[in-house]
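Design review, sub-item: ligand-bound model
Attendees: FS, YL, KQ
YL presented the inputs for the adenosine-5'-diphosphate complex:
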Amino acid sequence: MPANKEIKKLEDLPGVGPKTAQKLRDAGIYTIEDLAMSSVNELVEKAGLGEETARKLIEIAEEIVGHGFKSAYEYLEERKNVEKITTGSKALDELLGGGVETQALIEAFGEFGSGKTQIGHQLAVNVQLPKEKGGLFTGNPVKVVYVDTEGTFRPERIKQMAEAVELNPEEVLKNIFYIKAFNSDHQINIVKKIPKLINEGNNIRLIVIDSITAHFRAEYVGRGTLAERQQKLNQHLRDLLKIATVYNLAVYVTNQVMAKPDTFGGFDIVQAVGGHVLAHAITYRIFLRKGKEKTRIARLIDAPHLPEREVVFRITDEGVRDV
Ligand code: ADP
Ligand code: MG
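KQ shared the predicted structure:
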């Protein structure tokens, strides 16, 4: 990080008094990093700042955080903060370059029954494992936000998976904030409240949204509203990516599509997210399909620095495992 190391809180910024700082926090902006990644519109609409003030504040924050040009070396150094969560399958971990990364958004898409929800459950358990076992636990209980839109979350399944990796099932369940999203607006608002939860002292390292697209699909039917749907979903993804980056956490989302592997449904999440310049954001998409017996095939698609290839894993009573 460049100069101005002494500036840490919003209040330390020139022109930001306690009142403005509070307005920013009410709008979900807690840190200089948050501010640097905000848009003028966001500050005007949500924090009620004047346009000129908003522009200036973002500029100052950007300068402190150093969102201008940086050397590839600096970028590599920053990427060292990225941590990885095991999926429970070595093959699947390897496909993802070592596991599910923090500071990234990973999307699993595939047809009904392909294993998207099972992976979500497994990650919610595994993130709580000690570091040497593929989790992110280092002494402070690791928490998860699990947003369910389809009513397919099963605490009993979490318990089963927790026991299989020798974690205390009750503790594991207590560390998962479960919330059912009733519609897309509710879903969007839930995500906006996550920074508050974190700033209240919850060590949230994983967000699961199962599914990210179901409500959007159901609510925006017909061509007339397609653009609006896309725009709302894009913003939602940007909110998620921002939280992932600022708080060094992983985001796992699911997206149900029809079986045909060459037509991936109406949403292109990579394109939606990639269109926005977020220096840290690396996005992974995996396409899941059923294989023989209990096996599942995962194909990595469009990953920024990994080859496109396929691996096989399976879903057992214990959870996601190698074949
Ligand atoms: P999706 O979310 O992609 O629709 P799921 O993740 O719900 O699919 O996967 C459902 C599949 O997971 C089931 O068809 C079954 O094969 C497997 N599964 C779920 N629970 C168990 C379990 N306790 N033991 C073994 N397999 C299970
Ligand atoms: Mg599911």
